[in-house]
Amino acid sequence: MGYALSLYQKVFLEKALAEHLKDWTKADPIAEKIKDAFRAVLLGNGFEAITNNHYELRQKEISCQFFDGSIDFDIRVSKQTEQTIVWCTKLMVDFAEKNALVVYDTQDPSTDDLL
Description:
By secondary structure, this protein is an alpha+beta fold. It has helices spanning about 10-20, 30-45, 80-100, and strands at about 1-10, 50, 55, 60-65, 70-75, 100-105.
């Protein structure tokens, strides 16, 4: 079991939370140029491309996957989980602010305020 963080388009996430949507698999698509920019961020931070839609940073035990409407991090439980969550959140928030995206933390109900 791991810790999950996701990037979504802000408009979609606000709607999903307000309307209590159950199915988020049809989230508004994230533009391919934005995904490519985030892939570059991942590579610049030491991630390895497993496929074009799956990246891993093994020393921090992080997996990142790209879907049509989200970019999802899975942080495996380890001795450094807490520090890794903080690091991933900062990486994602910095990127999100420049690209009309928001970070959603499924484990933290306070993210109704959106990161």
